[in-house]
Design a protein that fits this description.
The complex is a heterodimer of chains A (about 450) and B (about 550).
Chain A lengths: L1 H6 L1 H29 L9 H5 L5 E2 L5 E6 L2 E4 L3 H6 L1 H4 L10 H4 L1 H4 L20 E3 L3 H12 L5 E7 L5 E7 L25 H4 L9 H11 L7 E4 L2 E4 L2 E4 L7 E4 H6 L3 H23 L6 E2 L2 E2 L12 H7 L10 H12 L3 E3 L4 E4 L3 H4 L7 E3 L3 H10 L13 E8 L8 E8 L6 E7 L5 H21 L2
Parallel strand pairs in A: 1-4
Antiparallel strand pairs in A: 1-2, 2-3, 4-14, 5-6, 5-18, 7-10, 8-9, 11-12, 13-15, 16-17, 17-18
Chain B lengths: L3 H31 L10 E5 L5 E4 L3 E5 L6 E2 L10 E6 L2 E6 L6 E3 L2 E2 L3 E4 L4 E4 L2 E7 L24 H20 L9 H23 L6 H18 L3 H24 L6 H21 L2 E3 L2 E7 L2 E3 L1 H13 L3 H4 L2 H21 L2 H18 L4 H29 L13 H13 L22 H9 L1 H12 L1 H7 L7 H25 L17 H17 L2 H4 L3
Parallel strand pairs in B: 3-4
Antiparallel strand pairs in B: 1-2, 1-11, 3-5, 5-6, 6-9, 7-8, 7-10, 10-11, 12-13, 13-14
The chains are: A alpha+beta (about 450), B alpha+beta (about 550).
Chain lengths: ~450, ~550
């Protein structure tokens, strides 16, 4: 029987292995409990029930955007501000998963492994959060953007620090009085739960000429000595490339081509540069990349000419064909041009009470090289100047775009750009879906955004 | 006016915090009781070498005599075979049985055939060495003591009825928590279940104490503690299942008593082996023919509203066939019967395609094979094991590959293959140390939360401390089974107890780590806690082996 005892050591080993496994799991639990608990499907923290216990959320100046008063979650008292920031702050539901109240609700409610999620308020420590956004700017931009009654997005951020000053997405609704969305009215609220700044992609149209221009600057040595003759329409690769409304620009150089947004010149440049080098430039700028912004992954844009004909390659150079970009991504590209080629990753979070920033695992703002410093400088130089166009007195370089999206739909209106002022280093991207010309629809929104954002920065 | 609901809230939360400590205390008491009420460590008989007058204490019920160091009684004599004979104690007295030795075994100068009774003062001869068979008290020196058992002189264990009272009170507290759950409806249904549970618990105790006249009840108490937790968790999930769980516990207890009675005499078991093997094959056969295919595996039989998994019972029979008494264990006939039976089971399970069951059987086979084999037989068994393993690997490949897809990667597949595991992790984290309260969990809405994912359910509603405590309560059965190995009445009990305990730990491991993504999810049940009649019954069956291995079960009567 002694030998049986000896052999039973194997079974003892099973138990030891099991206890080892339990120890390993316990470590995993202690390390990751926050992440595990913090899931959109976790019913313990959904709805009003969870957020009652959450701390307050402030804008960059300490204006409360959301806070708990008594048993109720109360949002900013200005309708435009709270509606404009719906997608950034969130509402009582968890439907907007990219909003901070959804993303960080367990941290805001003071989740701890010790008490779990069903313990009384008195045993919890909730946390307050301060965002980088400016309430006034967002309110004003919401008013401007929502006037079009279509989907759109506008983002302004500080390309030196990464702080997002303004981020507005439409359609939106009032978080204080959320609508009941059902089958009968769901058409009126299409895409309402999506933050178009962070989660949507659009056909870029002429704003993509920034990318083509960067590729041209790097690949064509005599670019600035050349001139082209534009007749408003020209056959490239078997089919016509046309300028907007068939407008003929006559004899123009590179800078003029960018200023007048001449499709024919940029189509020709794209073909001359070739699919391979165009793709390389787009890859370097990160068009096909997803960026992580405060735990939200932006959708990757799209530039793929691997199967394109010559004519399609030509169209891809002016932001048509199958090109797609994300508004935040465009703001980052503009920020990179202004910042000598280096793109600082944007963030919405300025601070938090207690150890909130540690709890949410806030990383130091990263950066990425998108352009050679030389290319960035040349691009800044040739980009159209909007300084005298009422952008709050800022020196603004920008590009408008009017992206065709289909036969029976109006084009997407775009405007992207940046200011070069040292005390107001702002980059912006603004898109209005199915509206019309960029200069007509996107520009006023961008003007409002930059004007207010400049005030917000200069006030402090 | 003062709001009295605040006091209620504080009370319920306070109870929740108290429960983990209470659970630890109960499990501790169960194990403390197992360590006590032991006979003193004294030799049963003494063998005196007639030439050297050296006295050898015999402390075990079954002893091998031989030249090899691993024997219980080592004889350094070239004429003695490596394993020469087996000396065993039975209720009728002491016997010696020759183990196919070269020169034979003699009692009082007469060559033995089969088992030969040995009386006090008889002379046993193995090889050229003669021993005189003396009483145990002829040996005067102190023996080394086992760390596990308390000295007999120490204060007695907690009385069984006190332990039962503590467990009933624990279940009552759980019931109170369940009554004041957040949903607020059906306040009194847990109380009715508690009544039934208390009747079952005290019924078992009365049967054991007054009818079977046993003095020990710790193992049953531990099992009841766990079964009760499982049942009360179910009341807020699926009321009918909670009562089914109780009914299964009753059936399990009956089977527990039957098995203990059946294996009371380790020699008589050999007579039941053939009928048991036939029953096992029939059970597996019916589930192949009548079994309904669920999740790709034909393992369930449905009779009216009852569903039943025959392989769970076959597991218990398999251990009975696999274990054996020391003198028969290493005979070739016994070995071939075991291997033959294993091959038949393999074949039938391969047809059924149930991964979890197959895995459990494979591990049981390995455990038994290892526990019984020595020398060259190990090689045969290892080969058989390899064939066993390969058969399943080929059989389950596509199915297994699918399970592995989300393994250690569940967050990526949170909406499909990793759905169950991510929910378990989220809700374990939501429960914290003390849980959200019985009935307040959300994991219960996920499929299989009451069986495959039950560790998560316990952790969410009662806190991670309770969940780990009850897991350890099952895991530590191995330590107990091992401690009683050399003190049980036959190797049959030692082997079956160690295998049963090992099997419970393996199930526990696959269940807990499968649900928490430390291992792939295999759909194995958590012993005594998971919902499922056949699982509960087979757990009680396995527990019977551990109970039977404890010599107190048969020898001590009230």
């Amino acid at each position: 029987m002694k030998s049986v005892l000896k052999r039973s050591t194997l079974i003892l080993f099973f138990t030891i292995a099991f206890i080892g496994g339990i120890a390993f799991f316990t470590v995993e639990l202690v390390v990751s409990a926050d992440d595990w608990a913090n899931q959109p499907y976790n019913a313990h923290i959904s709805g009003n029930g969870g957020l009652e216990q959450a701390g307050a959320i402030f804008d960059r100046n300490g204006t409360p955007l959301a806070q708990t008063v008594g048993e109720n979650r109360v949002y900013n008292d200005n309708y435009s501000v709270r509606t404009g920031l719906l997608h950034t702050v969130g509402d009582n539901s968890l439907n907007i998963s990219t909003a901070v109240q959804s993303k960080y609700r367990s941290q805001l409610t003071g989740y701890s492994l010790i008490w779990g999620l069903n313990m009384p308020q008195s045993l919890r420590t909730s946390h307050d959060m301060t965002l980088t956004v400016d309430a006034n700017t967002c309110g004003a931009v919401y008013d401007a953007l929502s006037a079009y009654d279509t989907s759109g997005a506008c983002v302004v951020y500080n390309y030196k620090t990464g702080e997002v000053i303004c981020s507005v997405s439409t359609l939106a609704y009032d978080p204080q009085a959320p609508p009941k969305i059902n089958e009968s009215n769901e058409k009126d609220y299409e895409g309402v739960y999506l933050d178009h700044v962070l989660s949507s992609t659009y056909t870029p149209g002429s704003i993509f000429k920034l990318v083509t221009a960067a590729a041209a600057i790097e690949n064509i040595p005599d670019l600035f000595e050349r001139t082209w003759y534009c007749e408003g329409s020209e056959e490239i690769g078997g089919n016509d490339i046309t300028c907007v409304d068939g407008e003929a620009h006559g004899e123009i150089n590179f800078r003029q081509a960018l200023e007048h947004s001449c499709n024919i010149v940029f189509a020709k440049l794209a073909v001359e540069i070739g699919a391979e080098k165009m793709t390389a430039a787009a890859e370097k700028i990160g068009i096909n990349m997803s960026f992580e912004i405060d735990d939200v992954k932006t959708p990757a844009g799209h530039y793929d000419v691997s199967k394109a004909s010559v004519n399609q390659l030509a169209w891809s150079g002016v932001g048509q064909y199958n090109d797609e970009v994300n508004p935040m991504q465009m703001a980052m590209i503009c920020g990179a041009i202004a910042n000598g080629g280096k793109s600082v990753t944007p963030t919405y979070i300025k601070g938090g009470s207690g150890d909130l920033l540690e709890l949410i695992g806030m990383k130091k703002s990263g950066s990425r090289d998108m352009f050679n410093p030389n290319t960035a400088a040349k691009l800044t130089e040739v980009l159209p100047d909007y300084t005298y166009d009422d952008f709050g007195g800022l020196t603004v370089k920008a590009k408008t775009g009017t992206a065709e999206v289909g036969e029976d739909k109006k084009p997407n209106a775009w405007m992207v750009g940046f200011s070069t002022d040292a005390d107001c280093p702002l980059a912006f991207a603004c898109v209005v879906e199915n509206a019309g010309f960029g200069s007509q629809y996107a520009k006023p929104v961008a003007q409002t955004a930059m004007k207010y954002a400049a005030q917000a920065l200069k006030a402090h | 006016m003062f709001d009295f609901s605040v006091i209620f809230d504080i009370g319920v939360v306070g109870l929740r915090i108290l429960m983990p400590l209470y659970a630890i205390f109960i499990v501790y008491q169960c194990y403390a009781a197992m360590r006590r009420r032991r006979r003193p460590e004294k030799p049963l008989v003494t063998l005196m070498n007639t030439a050297t007058l050296e006295k050898i204490p015999v402390v075990l019920w079954e002893n091998t005599i031989g030249r090899k160091r691993s024997n219980d009684i080592v004889v350094e004599d070239a004429a003695v075979s490596r394993t020469h004979a087996v000396l065993l104690r039975r209720s009728e007295g002491w016997f010696i049985s020759d183990a196919e030795s070269v020169h034979g075994t003699y009692v009082n100068g007469e060559k033995t055939e089969g088992r030969k009774q040995v009386l006090i003062d008889d002379v046993i001869r193995v090889g050229n060495t003669e021993f005189q068979f003396l009483r145990g008290d002829e040996y005067n020196e102190e023996l080394r003591e086992s760390w596990f058992f308390k000295k007999p002189s120490r204060k007695p264990a907690i009385k069984a009825w006190k332990l039962m009272l503590m467990i009933t009170l624990f279940h009552f507290f759980m019931t109170v928590e369940a009554m004041f759950w957040n949903a607020g409806t059906n306040s009194f249904s847990p109380l009715i279940l508690f009544g039934a549970l208390a009747v079952v618990e005290w019924g078992f105790f009365s049967v054991s104490y007054f009818i079977l006249r046993r003095i020990t009840f710790e193992l049953e108490a531990l099992a009841l503690f766990l079964s009760g937790i499982g049942a009360i968790l179910l009341i807020r999930q699926e009321e009918r299942a909670a009562y089914m769980q109780l009914a299964a516990t009753v059936v399990g207890f009956v089977i527990f008593c039957i098995i203990i009675k059946l294996i009371e005499n380790p020699d008589r078991i050999y007579r039941f082996r053939l009928p048991l093997m036939i029953i096992a094959v029939l059970l597996l056969g019916t589930s192949i023919i009548f079994g309904k295919v669920t999740n790709g595996a034909a393992n369930w039989i449905y009779i009216g509203i009852f569903s039943f998994q025959p392989s769970e019972l076959v597991k218990v029979i398999y251990i009975i066939i696999g274990a054996g008494t020391l003198d028969k264990l290493n005979t070739k006939k016994d070995l071939f019967i075991f291997i033959g039976f294993s091959v038949v089971c393999v074949g039938l399970l391969a047809i059924m395609r149930d991964l979890g069951t197959a895995l459990i059987f494979f591990i049981t086979f390995l455990l038994i094979a290892f526990m019984r084999s020595g020398d060259f037989k190990t090689i045969i068994l290892a080969v058989a094991a390899a064939v066993f393993g390969a058969t399943f690997a080929i059989r389950f490949m596509p199915y297994v590959a699918d399970r592995f897809k989300a393994y250690r990667n569940v967050w990526k597949y949170a909406q499909d293959e990793g759905y169950q595991q991510t929910h378990v992790l989220t809700f374990i984290a939501s429960g914290g140390l003390f849980g959200v309260g019985i009935g307040n969990g959300f994991l219960k809405q996920v499929a299989a939360s009451e069986s495959d994912l039950v560790f998560g359910l316990v952790a969410e509603e009662m806190g991670i401390i309770v969940a780990i405590t009850i897991a350890l309560a099952v895991a530590l059965l191995v330590v107990y089974a091992r401690a009683i190995t050399t003190r049980s009445r036959s190797t049959f009990y030692s082997i079956s107890a160690c295998c049963a305990a090992g099997l419970l730990v393996v199930q526990l491991t696959l269940n807990i780590f499968g649900a928490t993504d430390l291992l792939p999810l295999t759909g194995v049940t958590f012993p005594f806690i998971s919902s499922g009649g056949s699982s509960i019954i087979s757990c009680w069956g396995l527990l019977a082996f551990i109970k039977a291995a404890d010599e107190r079960t048969y020898s001590l009567k009230r």
